[in-house]
Amino acid sequence: MNRAYPAYACKRLAQAFVVIALTYVFTFVVVSVLPGDPVTNVLRDPQNGFSEAEIQEIVASHGLDRPIPVQLWASLSRFVVGDLGMSMRSDRPVATLIAEVLPSTLVLAGTALFIALVLALVIAYGTQFVPRRYGQGLLRGTPSLFLSVPSFVIGLVLIHAFGFQFGLFQVIEPDSVPATLFAAFALGIPVSAQIAEVLIVNLDNESRQEYAAVARARGLGPARLFARHLLKPSALPVVTVVALTVGELLGGSLITETVFGRTGVGSLVQRSVSTQDLPVLQAVVSLAAVVFVLVNLVADLVYPLLDPRVKLLEPEHRPRAVQA
Amino acid sequence: MTAPFFSRSPSSHSAFSRRRLRVWLARAASVAVVTLAGMTPAYSATPGADDPRNGGDATFLIDSLGNTWIPNNSAISSFQGHIWGHVTDKLVYVDGDGKTSPWIAERWEQNADATQFTLHLKKGVTFSDGAPLDAAAVVANLDIWSAGRKSEGINPIGLFPKTYDHAEAVDAATVKVFFKAPTLGFIPTLGYHGSILISPRSLALPAAQQADLRKSAGSGPFVVESWKEGGFVRLVKRRDYRWGPAAVGHSGPAFLNSLTYRLVSEPSLRVAAVQSGQADIAYNASPQELKSLRGEGFTVVTPRYLGFVNGLALNTRLAPFDDLKVRQALQAAIDRREIIDTVYTPDWKLATSFIQSNVPGAADYGRLLAYDPVRAGRLLDEAGWVKDAKGARAKDGKPLLLTLNSNPYLATSRAIDELIAQQLGKIGWRVVIRAYDVPTYGEKVRIGGPAVPAYEVTRSFIDAGTVAGILTDANNGENWFALGESDRKINELRDRIAGAGSADIRRPLLDELQKYVLEQGYFIPRTQIVQRIYVQSPRLKGEKYNGIAYASYYTATKAK
Fold first, then answer.
1. Strand spans (E) along chain A
2. pLDDT in tens, B79-93
3. Is A176 on the interface with B (CB under 8 A)?
C-alpha cells in the first residue's frame, strides 16, 4: 500500500457522506411536493366519514401543516443523531420496522447473489469449453435472454410451476427455505446475466492470451485451465459489477418480495411509496444509499489491493494540465 | 329406533327392573340436562372439547393488511376489519339485512326523543388481558370513539354520531348514554365496523404502543398469537370465550383452532393458492373469475353491505347540472342492466334507490331508474341542448360535457365510466374520463368541488337515518349535491328524519326522501355494490356475514 492510499480512502469516505446527505434531502423534497400526505390520504377515504375541518385538525396534530423547510429541518436534525422517527402510516418506530424486515431481505439478496454468481460461472464456463455443436451459441445468448425477462415474470412462472403444479413449496409460507430459494432464483437470474456478460468478454480475451495457449499445449484440461489461469484475471471486473448489482438486488427485491408475498425492505418501500410514508421512505432510501455507497467504496478500496497493476498516484506524480 | 320404556323382553323379565331402570334414569338425566341447557342463557352453552366440529386451521389470503393497527385509526372499513372482527366484540350485532340484535349489550332502552339510551351489559365478559368488559370499559370506548386523542395522533371514529354528549356507568353492567340531539341511529352504529370494544388498559396506552397489534386486547373469540407488519396476522382461538351473539347461533369458543390472514397482493395468486389447496379463502377475486370458480366447486360469496349504492352525486351549482331536466336526462340515459351484464356478473344487483336494497327502510324506485334514451334526448332538447350536424349536443356554443373522475377505491370504476361514456355518446353527450391515483384523487376530487360536477360514491353505513344528514351542509353535513340550505323539501325531510323518535315514524320520511332525490336527479345510481368477494374452499363451512359484508369464521368448521 502506497502513501496515497489513506488520503484516497478519506476522500472517498467524505464523498460517501455527501451522497447520503443529498439522497436524504432529495427524497424529502420529492415526496413532499407530491399531492397529499399519508394522514390525509387515509382520512379522505370516504368510508371514514371525516369532515374537512376534522381532517385539517388531525393533519395539524401530526405537524404536517408546517412549511416544508421546517419539516425538513426537524427531520434532518433527528436523522443526524440516529433517530429515524415514527412511521406516519403504521405509527410505529421506523427503526423497528426496518429491523423487522431487514433480515428477510438480506437472506433473499444474499442467496440471490450466490445463485447469480454460480449461474454466471456455469454459463461463462460453458461459453469457453462447450463445443459449438453442443450449444455454445445458445449459452452465449443466455445472458441476453435472462436480461430481457423481467424478474416478476420469472417469479410468477416459478410460483405457478413449482409452487402450484409440482407443490415444491407453499406459496403461503414465503419465508420457508424452498420458497426463499425460488424467490432468490427469480431475483438472481437477471443479475447473473450481467455478471456472465462481463465474465464472458473477459474470458474470451484471456483465453486468447499466450499464457492460455501455453497452458493448453502443456495438456491442461478445461476445468483446471478455467479455475487456475483464466478465472482470476477475468473476475476482477466482476467485482465492480457485483458492487453495482447490490443496488439492483435491493431494488429488485421490491418486485420479487411483492410477487412472493415476502415481508422485506422491498415490500416496506412499496407500502411506504403507496402511502407517502415519508419517514420510512427517507430511512430506507438513506439506508440503501449507505449500503450502495459502502459496497462501492469497498470495491474501490479493495481493487488496488487485489490487482497490483492498479496503482494510486501520489499528488506530486499526477499529470498536470499543460500551461498555455 | 328408540324402544318404548316399558316394553318387556320375553326372555329376561327380571332384568327389566335393574338394567332398564338404569337406562331409563340415564335417559331422564340426559333430557333434564338438555332442558336445563335450553333454559340457560345462550352464552353458557359451550360445546364440549370433544365436539367433532372442533379443530382445523384456516388461511385467509388478503390483498392488504392496511396501515396502522391503532384501533381508532386502522382501515376497519376495508381490510383490518377482518382481523378486528375476530379479536373484538361489539355491543350489538347487525346482520346482513340490517337487523340489530343483542351481543355484549343484552338489552337497551331509549327515551321518547332518542337522546338518552340505557345499555344493559352481559355479565362475566372479559378482555383477553383479563380486564372485565363492564360499564366503565364501555364508557371508555364510547369516549374514545367520539373524541379520539387527537394530540396523540389517535383519531375519533369518523362515522360515530357527532351528537354524542357523554356516557355514565350507572353500575357495573349498566351504561347511560346522552346525546345533544335525537340520535335514533345510535344502536345500529354500535354494530358498525368502527365500534369495536377494546380493553381500557389498551386504550390507555400511547399511540405507538397501540400500533402494536399484540398490545390491543379485545374480548373476541380469537386472540393475536403473532403478526408481522405487511405480512400476516395469526389468530388463535380463545378457549374461555362464551359470549358470542345469539344471532349467529353459537356462543362458545370458536371451532377453528387458528385463523391466519396472509397478505398476497396478486389476485391470481390468491385464487390459485385456494385452488391448489394451499389456502382456504381468497379475498377479492376478479368478478370475471367467479363463474368458473363456482363451476369448479368452490364457494363464492358476494355479500352486499349496508350503505349507498355505487353512483354519482351531482353538483347542482355547476352547469349543466343546475338544470333539473339535464339531471333527469342523465338519470334516464344510463343503461344499468348493460353495466351489470358487461362489467359484472349476476351477483351484482340493479339499483332500486340510492341506498342498497337490503338496508332497512330502502324503497324500491327502480321505475325511476329505467333506461329510456328517447326520454333523455327529449329532456335535453327541452333544456336547450340540441344536436349539431355531427350528433353532439351543445347550447349557446358550449358542448354538453360530463367529466367523470374514476374512483380509485373501486377497481371496476373506470370500466363503468367507459361504458357510460358510450351510452351517453349515443344521445350526443360527451364524456371525459379522468383517472388518478389515491393521493391525487384525494387532493383533486372532492365532493361538491368546483371542478367536480359528478362525484362517485361508494360508502357503507349501518343506519339509513344518517343518510339525510349527509346530503346538506347543516351540522357539518357533507353537502353532497352542493345544495346548501337551498332545497326546502330536502331540508324539511332531513330535519324530520333526524328528529324521528322511532323507526315507524322515520320509515315514510325515508321513503319520501329517496323518491325525491331520485326524481330530482340529485343522485344517479349505477349499480348496487358488492365490496367484498370471498372465494372459499368447500372444506370450510358455516361462516357468517354481517351487515358490512365481513365474513366471520367464529362459527366456521373445516372438514378434516
1. none
2. 889 999 999 999 999
3. no
